[in-house]
Amino acid sequence: MKRAARGFTLIEVMIAITIMGVLAVICWRALDSVASTDQRLRQADAETSTAMRVLQQFQRDIEMRADDALMNGAVRPADQPARLLPPSLTSERHPDGGFTLEITRSVGSDGLQWQRVRWWRQGSTLWRASGAPSDHYPLPAPEPTRGLMVARDVQRFEVRAWQPGVGWAMLPSQGEVLPATGLELRLGLRDGRGPLSYRRVLAL
User: How many CB atoms lie within 10 A of CB 140?
Assistant: First the structure.
């Protein structure tokens, strides 16, 4: 005599569905965590790439600054009464705490033309503007309205100069100074992880 096939009870079906639901939630949370981590890593990589571009462009501008002998004091120094920075660099501190650094740099492979490049922070945005190249003074001034945005969410943009025997000096300097032998750029950005700080030291 054959025994009748026995099916699943309602309780067994509900338990199976519950287990499947729990597994689905666990898998969904795991996938969501992976996606969130990937998004954060991509954002962090983008912020790091932005910072590296800023540091490299700033370094290039400094390295290509006009020869001090050729400048012959043509650019009005902003550091008074003595000259901490070379003639090709001028700095200015604004009443709102903003900082501007202007660099007179050579243009082209022959180095027979120069242009004025200005770096400044406005709010939380870092800008860079350059004037038209020229082979004679006065050099055209950079136009801020045609500046390029180089970084967003900037918390800090500061440049200090190394004064022999004294140490790092904030720009612009005041009082009697010695010619600087180095520059330090401090760049602070902010992303989803919080504040990020970058620093680069350049020889003058």
Answer: 12
Judge contact between 114 and 152, C-beta under 8 A: no
Q: Which of 143, 180, 190 is nearest to 62 (CA)?
A: 180
Pairing of strands 167-170, 154-163: antiparallel
pLDDT in tens, 128-166: 999 999 888 788 999 888 899 999 888 889 999 998 888
Which one-letter DSSP state was computed for residue 134? B
Count of positions (residues) in the chain: 204
Give the pair of three-digit tokens for residue 114: 């120069």
Q: Count of CB atoms within 10 A of residue 125's CB?
A: 15
Give Cα 99 to chain centroid, integer Å.
14
Q: Interior CA angle at 81 toward 78 and 85, to 5°? A: 50
> Cis ω on the peptide bond leading into residue 81 (within 30° of 0)?
yes
| Rounded distance between C-alpha atoms, residue 77 and residue 172, angstroms | 10
In whole angstroms, give the CA distance from residue 186 to residue 175.
Answer: 23
